[in-house]
C-alpha cells in the first residue's frame, strides 16, 4: 500500500499496487473494486479508481490514518474494554450490513480491520475474496 496525493485536489489516497498477476488475480481485483464501489457504509473502506496496465494493477482508495487491529493488539499488553466493545459493535454492524446486501467478506481477521488514529473507530478492508451471494443471508 502506498500513500499518494491527488495533484489537483491535494487529497490523500492509498494505492494498492499488484505487480505480478494473472487472469485470476485481475478478476479478483476487479471484483473487489466493483463490490466496494457498490457498498456505502461508514466502516467500510471506500474505493476511488481501478486501472490495470500491462504490468501492474492499481486500486486507489480512501487513505486511512491508523493501523491494523493486528498491530494494535500486538503493541498493547491489554486492550481497554470500553474501546474493544465499541470496535466490536461497529464490526458487527458492518457484517450485518454486508449480509443484508448479500455480501460475504470471507476474510475477516485483525489484519483486515483498520483502527483509525482516534482508537475507537474502525474500517473493514481487503474484500478480494468476498462474494456476492445469490440469496441474502438475513
CATH topology: Transferase(Phosphotransferase), domain 1
Report the uncertain regions.
none
Order of strands, widest sheet: 1-2-4-3
The chain-level structural class is alpha+beta
Helix content estimate: 25-40%
The secondary-structure element order is: EEHEEEHHEEEE
* Quaternary organization: single chain
Give an overview in words:
This protein is of the alpha+beta class and 138 residues long. The chain has a single domain, classed as Transferase(Phosphotransferase), domain 1 (Orthogonal Bundle), CATH 1.10.510. Helices cover 31% and strands 27% of the residues. The chain has three helices and nine strands; from the N terminus they run ββαβββααββββ. The strands form three sheets. It has a four-stranded antiparallel sheet with strand order 1-2-4-3, with helices on one face. A hairpin with a 4-residue loop joins strand 3 and strand 4. The longest helix has 20 residues. The radius of gyration is 16 Å and the shape is globular. The model has no long low-confidence stretch (mean pLDDT 93).
Descriptors:
138 residues; alpha+beta; Transferase(Phosphotransferase), domain 1; 4-stranded antiparallel β-sheet
Give me a quick take on this structure.
With 138 residues, this protein is an alpha+beta fold.
